């Protein structure tokens, strides 16, 4: 009878419930992953298009799961957010990134920058600012200007004083701010003036079908012109082909990031790439 009950249970288990269970398991595993050192920070080069030199890198977290293999951040970042684990993960990514930024400033380029992603939940967390980040930077002897924080448009729409205060706090410490996935949110251009943003990252959905005379080309050109007039620099995301790169360069885009240059790499491999000249 017991066995039949179990069968009946699984028969009636809706797919949603299975998905929820799966998420719960993965969230539990994630807790262990932080302690068990299964997380890695990968770095993807951000290339100065005018010179072809690597001026910056974006830190992207990876999870090497003992059974499932590499789990995409698209899958586990949402779990980390809903469970609050994102704060711990973000701290760790920041410290790893700062350590490498210091090394690359010393050995490669004195103005090298590493950018870290901050989900809205991390950015807005109650009662805590970025003081402990700044303390860490002081401890390791790194200028704030070595770091960039990537946030998304949604944060600026909900323009609470908390958001404004944190942006000011970052600016005072010299940390720069990039607006990620630009063009995909509920774009209200007025906030570009209102907040102190340093970089716009054009979302890769605009870059994917970039071709002369295309509407995405027109949009990208308009974004670049507008950003420059407002004193912002522009990074194009998801640059995969030499043609896209040429079009962006011609449109005056400052930086490119994407598989054309390199996928995100383990820190040691990124370090090795910096030591050898980049062949485009
Ligand atoms: P994102 O911030 O927009 O990061 C760019 C994503 O595009 C990365 O995916 C990167 O691997 C991918 N990408 C780079 N170049 C190309 C290209 O040429 N073509 C294509 N198709 N894709 C490209 P990834 O690493 O899977 O990260 C996904 C998202 O997860 C990130 O999107 C970011 O929102 C989030 N994420 C990653 N690491 C962190 C983190 O440490 N903290 C937080 N809060 N979020 C993170
Ligand atoms: Ca990003
Ligand atoms: Ca992005
Ligand atoms: Ca994103």
TrEMBL record:
Residues 23-278 form the EAL domain. Coiled coil: none annotated. It comes from the Bacteria. This is EAL domain-containing protein. It comes from Massilia polaris.
């Amino acid at each position: 009878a017991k066995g039949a009950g179990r069968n009946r249970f699984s028969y009636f288990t809706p797919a949603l419930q299975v998905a929820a269970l799966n998420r719960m398991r993965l969230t539990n595993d994630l807790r262990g992953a932080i302690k068990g050192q299964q997380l890695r920070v990968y770095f993807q080069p951000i290339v100065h298009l005018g010179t072809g030199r690597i001026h910056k890198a974006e830190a992207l977290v990876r999870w090497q799961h003992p059974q499932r293999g590499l789990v995409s951040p698209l899958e586990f970042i949402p779990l980390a957010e809903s469970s609050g684990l994102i704060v711990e993960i973000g701290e760790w990514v920041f410290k790893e990134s700062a350590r490498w930024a210091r090394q690359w400033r010393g050995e490669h380029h004195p103005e090298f920058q590493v950018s870290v992603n901050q989900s809205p939940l991390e950015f807005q967390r109650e009662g805590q600012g970025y003081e402990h980040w700044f303390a860490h930077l002081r401890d390791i002897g790194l200028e704030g200007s070595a770091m960039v924080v990537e946030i998304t448009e949604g944060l600026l729409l909900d323009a609470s004083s908390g958001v404004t205060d944190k942006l000011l706090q970052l600016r005072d410490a010299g940390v720069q701010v990039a607006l990620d996935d630009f063009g995909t949110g509920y774009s209200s251009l007025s906030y570009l003036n209102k907040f102190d943003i340093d970089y716009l990252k054009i979302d890769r959905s605009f870059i994917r079908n970039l071709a002369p005379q295309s509407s995405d080309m027109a949009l990208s050109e308009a974004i670049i012109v507008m950003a420059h007039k407002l004193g912002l620099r522009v990074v194009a995301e998801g640059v995969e082909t030499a043609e896209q790169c040429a079009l962006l360069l011609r449109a005056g885009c400052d930086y490119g990031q994407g598989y054309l240059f390199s996928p995100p790499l383990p820190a040691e491999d990124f370090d090795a790439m910096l030591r050898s000249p980049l062949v485009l």
